[in-house]
Design brief:
CATH class of one domain: Alpha Beta
Oligomer: single chain
Helix content: 25-40%
CATH topology of one domain: FAD/NAD(P)-binding domain
Shape: globular
CATH superfamily of one domain: FAD/NAD(P)-binding domain
Amino acid sequence: MITTPVLIVGGGPVGLALSVMLSKLGVRSMLVNERLQTTTHPKLDVVNGRSMEVLRQFGLADAVRAAGNPRQANQHVAVAASASGPFYTVLSDRHPIYRSADDANALARDCQDGSLPLETMQRIAQMQLEPVLLEAARAEPEARVEFGWSLFGFEQDEAGVTAMIQGPEGRSRQVRCLYLIGCDGPSSRVRQFLNFDYEDTRDLVGELFIAHFRSEALAATFLKHEPYWHTWLLRPQFSGLVVSPDASRSDFVLHRPFAPRDGETVQNVIAAAIGRDIPFELVQSGAWRPQFLVANSYGRGRVFIAGDAAHQYMPTGGLGMNTGLLEAHNLAWKLAACVSGWGGPRLMSSYEAERLPAARRNRDHVKENAASVFESLFDIPDQLLDPGPAGGQARTVVAGTFVAKVTRLYESMGIELGYRYEDSPLIVGAGAGGAPCDPASYQPVAVPGARLPNGWRSDGQSLLDQLDRRGLTLVCLGARADQTTAFIDAAKDKGVPMTLLEVPEAHLASLYGWRWLLLRPDQHIAWAGDELPSEPAPLIDRVRGAT
């Protein structure tokens, strides 16, 4: 029998990232993945700013950027008749998300009010992302990664979980673990074994069509051979979206509201989307059914789910994998705390209390985005391409209307950064910060339950970079650090790793609005105040899930 503290089922981005995080936190894990290799399909096309902050915390951000879209390449979004034009409008600088990674990160370094993330988003296809994470996981001393093995059952008891796995040539093994985490995708066996159902309506928008193709010639039509990130196609009798996951490669993905009709072939449809008689190579294509589903529970006992096993989103807003990464982030420190002994009996159950509401919020945002997209794709005037004044006016109106509706897919910093764990049993003072952020606009507030807004210290370092990823961090904002003896001693008595971070900069005290902040390993504020509690032990017990 194999023994390991944590068994991860599923080797996509979420499972692989969780494997790396656990190893960085000193926890052994075993990951099994049914597939023999990483995906060959582009799938996702962006790792958002918050996810890049998480990857940075675990030393992965630079490797992900190196494998993805070049740092200097554009992130533009266009509305056009075809992928090669004519273009009605190009969004390039109205929001940091459309800037190159270098330009956007420069804006973040100059931002002193906490309104931008520490890391900007990164354009990258899943087929480039997974190998980076797999290599990182295999390099970790505490991570064991086994591709070609699948889960076919498990039983749990009060002390742990016994899982049955099957590998090449029908070989089977038993794995004994303290915790089992299902990151095994939309058809998750872990979710099915737990008998968790999905909330919301299946197949809400029916069947859509996707085609992955390559074309050096199409890439060459763009300035500097850098295709736009997204090109929305709007013309009479034809609509859709062409995605370039990475401007340094010639891969493109075409999304259409329906499959080729009678008399059409996939090649015909791609040629019509390109808009010019230029060569391309069809890689793969097919119908798919987008979903807006969230599991009705995230775990039971010692078994939990994350990523696509827990939710399925249409990619109108790029929140599927990014939501999953934050779930892995939430799980990682809690698993590490429990395995190392300082996590209390309520710590793991807080995962559902914190992440399930966030998944529902993201689902609702994605659904509203999809409604805006479909409304725009099917409302195209016949005179749109007329050469005269009527056509020009139609193009101006269509571009303006489309931009107004569809930019919510991109300019949604509030969704990425503004989520709060307001109903968490671990947060002291949760819900005291007022209404959640608007999906589009992020308002940086340092309230319990929120992610700590990024603040820059006088020496140019980010405060987020200085938080302890293995334990709690007590941030002293201009207060007297010699008052912390009782607090530090109480943490030590509970076995809780505690770091004291003195921050004398007045501009950060003004930004955060408190003299004291207690930060969790996942960069969320557990407690805030102007005076330390005279009896800190109950606060520490609450944050570690002991009460």
